[in-house]
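Example 3.
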Amino acid sequence: MVLGSIHIDTALALVVLLPLMGAIMNGLFGRFFSRRVVNFFAIGSVLVSFLLTIGLFLSLRSAPGEGVHTISTTLFTWIHIGSLHIPASFQMDQLSAVMTLIVTGVGFLIHVYSTGYMSDDPSYSRYFCYLNLFMFSMLILVLGGNLAVLFVGWEGVGLCSYLLIGFWFSDEAKAAAGQKAFVTNRVGDLGFLIGMLMLLQMTQGSLDFDAIENSIGLKQQDTLNFVTLMLFVGAMGKSAQIPLYIWLPDAMAGPTPVSALIHAATMVTAGVYMVARLSFMFAVTPLTLAVIAIVGGLTAIFAASIALTQRDIKKVLAYSTVSQLGFMFLALGVGAFSTAIFHLTTHAFFKACLFLGAGAVIHALHGEQDGFKMGGLKKHLPVTRWTFLLATLAIAGLPPLAGFFSKDEILWNALSHHHVQGYPMLQQVALILGMVAALFTAFYMMRLYLLIFHGSYRGDDHALEHLHKPSNGMKFALIILGVLSLCGGFMGIPHGDLNIFAAWLAPMFSETTSLFKRTHPHSVEYALMAVSTGVALVGVGIAYISYKDGVGNLPKSLGQRLPGVHALLLQAYKVDALLDLLIKRPFRGFARFCHRVIDAILIDGVIVTGTARVVAGFGAVFRRIQTGDVQHYALLIVLGMTTLLYLAFI
Amino acid sequence: MSIPISWYLLVAIILFGIGILAILTRRNVIVLFMGIELMLNGCNLTFLAFSRSFGNSVGHVSAFLVIAIAAAEAAIGLAITLAVFRHKGSVDVNEVRSLRG
C-alpha cells in the first residue's frame, strides 16, 4: 500500500476533512494567529490533502484489472426515513480522481500565491478561512458518493463563491456582485433540485449513482429528457452558460486568486463534472445532448465575441472562461465526455495561470485593471510575462501547448462524434460555432497579452515607479502553472496508446460508447488539426498586427467605422441593461407593490390594525354591560337562569 | 295524613322568590345577605322535602353541606362588607361600582 500505515478509507475522508479543519482553525482563531500560523493551517491542510490525493490516485492506478475502480468510505448515515436512504459517503473513481487532483493541486498553488497577493490585506485569516471552506465544499462536490452529497458540495461552493466575491464587502458594488452570483446560481439550483427529486422518485429512495443507473432503463424517454434538462439547468447556473452566465463577469469583483481558483479552474467546471458523472443518463437522451451542444456552442461564440473589445483585463479573462466552459459543454453535447474533462483539466492549468498572471499585473500596478493603461511591462515582470505568454498560446490552441490538444479534440468530436439518434446538421453547426469561437479566442488572448506586456507604458507613472514585484510564492505558482500549460496536453495526444488521459477515463464512459458512432475517418482529424492551427495563427496574427504597439490603426478604424457594433460588444450586448428592464425592474416594481400595498395596507392596515380595531369596537359595545352594579349582574343571572329553565322544561 | 310534597315546594319557592326580590331591590348589603340566606334555605327545604318523599337521606346530606357552606359564605361576605364599609363609609351596593367597565 502506497499510503503506508494510513488506511485508504481514512485517507479519502481526510482529503475532504483536512481543509474543513483548516477553515475552522482560521475561522475561529485566525485573528489571534500570526500570518505564519494562518499559512500553516491554510496551506498545510491543502498540501496534505493534495499529497493524500496523489497517494489515492496511485493506488487507483495500480488496482488490478480493467473497468471502474472505486475507493469509497461512508462517514455516517445522513438521512434514513422509510425507504429513503442517503448516506454521507465519498467515493473516488477515475473521474473524481482527476477532478480531485485538479482541485487540490491547483488549489494548493493558488493558496501559495494568495500569501503574496493578499499580504497587505487586513482580513488575511478570514480570506484563508473562506478559501479552505471552498476547498472543503469543492471536494465534497467531486468526491460525493451520491447525488445528494454532491448537491451539498454544490451549494457549499456557491456559498463560498458568494463570500469570496463579496470579500471586500464594504464596497457596495462588490457586495452586489456577490449577491448577483448567489441569486443567479439559485435559479440554476432550482432546476438541479427538481431533477434530483425526480430521480429520487425514479429510484425509490436512493440517490447513489449506481441506483440511478439501474433505474433509467425503466423510465419513459420524456421523463428522462425532463430530468436531464433540469439537471442541465443546474449546470447552466453553476458553469455560467447562456442565459445564466451573467454572474461570472461580475464575479471578478473578488480577489484575483479567487477568480483563478473558483471562477476559472474549479467551481465553474462543476456543471461539466456533473454531466460527465451522470453521462450514462445524458447519453440516452439525445434531445438534451443536442440542447447542451447548442447552448455550449452559442455560449462559446457569444462570450468570446464580448471578450474581443473589453478593456478590463479580468473581464476579458472572465468572458474567456465563459467561452471555454461553452467549449466543454459542446464536447459533452456531442457525447465526448472524456474530452470535456480533458479540456477542463488543461483549462484549469492555463486559465489559472492567466488569472494569476493578471493578478500579478494588477498587484504590481496597485489595482489598475484597465488594459489600455498598461503596456510594456515585459521588462518589469519577466516571470509573469513568460508564463502569461505560455498560457496565452495554450488557450489560443497553438501546438504543442496544452490547449491545442484539448481544443482540437473537441472540434474533432464535434465534427465526427455522433449520437446514433442524433439530429441532422448538429455536427456542422457545432463545428462552425467552435471554429469561430476558437478564432476569437486566439485573437482576444493575444490582444490581452500584447496590451499588457508590449508596446509602451500608457498608465500612471507613479504606479510604475512603485511597482510591486511578485513575491516568491506568486512566482512559484505562476511557473508551475506555466509549465503545466506547456506540457499538460501531452497526456492527451490523440490516438491509441499515447492518449493516456482518455484511456484512464475510458472505463467511466464505457457504457455510453455504444450509443455513439464515428462518422469520419481519422485522417480527417489531421486535416482538422491543420485547419484549427491555421485559425489560431490567423487570430494571433491579426492581434499582433493590431496591437503590437498599443492600440493600432486597424482596431481604431474598425471601431470608428462600426461604432454600433463596437459599443454593443463593449457593453456585452447590453444584456445587463436588458436584464434590468426585464427582470430587475419588474421585480423591484413587484417588491414595491408588496411593500406599499400588500404589506403596508393589507397586512399592517387590514390584518394587524384591523383586528385590533374590531376587538376594540366589540369591547366598546360590550363594556356597557359591565356596570359594576352587583344587582344588575344578579338580575342577568336570574333572567338567564329563567330562560334556561324555560327552554329546558317547556 | 301527611302534608303533600307540593306544599313544601310551594313554601320553598316562596322563600326563594323573596330572597331574589330582596337581592334585586334592596341596596343594603346586609339585607342582600339576608336574601341570599333565604334563597339557600328555600333550596334546603326542597332537598329535605324530596329526601323525605323518596325515603332516603341524600337530601339531608346535601342540606348539611349547604348550611356549612352558607356559614362560610356569610363569614367571608361579612368580612368583605366590613372592609368595604371601612373604605367607603357605607354599605350601599350602589356606592360600590369600582369594577365598572
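Residues 28-88 of chain B form a domain with the Helix Hairpins fold (CATH 1.10.287.3510). The two ends of chain B are 57 Å apart (CA to CA).
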